[in-house]
Fold:
Amino acid sequence: MKKMEYYSLNHNAPKVSFQEAVIQGLAPDRGLYFPENITPLSADFFKNIENLSNEEIAFEAIRQFVGDEIPETNLKQIIAETLCFDFPTIQVEDGIYSLELYHGPTMAFKDVGARFMSRCLAYFNKDKKDNKNTVLVATSGDTGGAVASGFLGVAGVDVVILYPSGKVSDIQERQLTTLGQNIKALEVDGVFDDCQDMVKKAFLDENLEYKNLTSANSINIARWLPQMFYFFFAYKQLKSQNKPMVFSCPSGNFGNICAGIMAKKLGLPIEHFVAATNVNDTVPQFLATGKYEPKPSKATISNAMDVGNPSNFIRIQELYNNDLKKFEKDFTSFSYDDETTRQVLKDIYKNSGYIAEPHGAVGYLGLKKEMQKHSGAIGIFLETAHPIKFLDVVEPVLGIKLPIPAQIESVLNQEKISVKIKTYDELKAFLQSS
Ligand SMILES: *Cc1c(COP(=O)(O)O)cnc(C)c1O
Structure:
């Protein structure tokens, strides 16, 4: 296994190793890192996949991207700690499956990326006595909780999470403000984009460089790449049906779907991808008009997808060598408003008894639309959060009371601890004093 090199998609920074890319997050020219080579997995691997454990599959999928920088036994250990829960595919109706990615510690699909990244960082920091990293992350909802939980107690890493005050659910807020230890929450008087802007500013601020800031958003390759695993796990479970597969991802920053496309690049036979969005429709608009026009984000009931300028879209274009024709063959994108989302939540529940939540419901909508063009295929939508995470929407819409899972119960009675900030200078003061 040799070294994998990563280049910046702005093409104005030196190539770096896996380790450097993980620690830096973003390249010095502000570009996203992208692997220099992508080698498809062997035909044998796909032929045998149903006989492999999730851990074995994950190891095969990720090892070329890590290269020799983490020894095989350590990488296997990291993967085992990352994948300590299930990823079931649940039949919702004929030919339509929900891939439930929410059985992890914070009941959000981001648990996998956060756990994998934190353990890679811990590995790289293991011999550095006084060289701390500070993970700085902005969250519109679910990232924060997953990062907080994934990094809790990881040696040599402090975590600072910015979230928009009053714009995340009570459960989400508790998941990121109650853990303590190396996890600090900053409650920002503003919207998600204000949080994101402050984080970007901090990364550009020369005076802060000694802090070794790193990101834990899906711009970081160690957060982004392990999301490939989901698509392999779904394939493994549904392969025996012998039908082409269409995947629909409820998309915000487009990291998850971009990882799915990477899985396809590794040889996973996926017929088509749907990026389903809420009214933050920059990508559906791009596909309709050919113009990529980032917009300020709008608040919706699927708030983890309230993103006006999806950071990973550039990686998707790179995966298609910026060939729009090829890209459009594999990929469609649809946008849905909150009313349609609420209605379909109700319909799914009425027709099949399945309880989705707003993000999964948007994925389901996009999937159903696309499936009209793929008779003979099966469709899989990604359920990215447990309905309890969005109970403010799900309970009134379905007229039911959801039982509270143990993972959530454990944070509900904890005391919230956050620091309120409004400006970048306050963030800077906080980082410099901690
Ligand atoms: C983050 C998130 C998404 C969007 O994922 P991207 O990789 O940013 O496209 C969808 N649903 C939930 C619940 C999320 O937390």
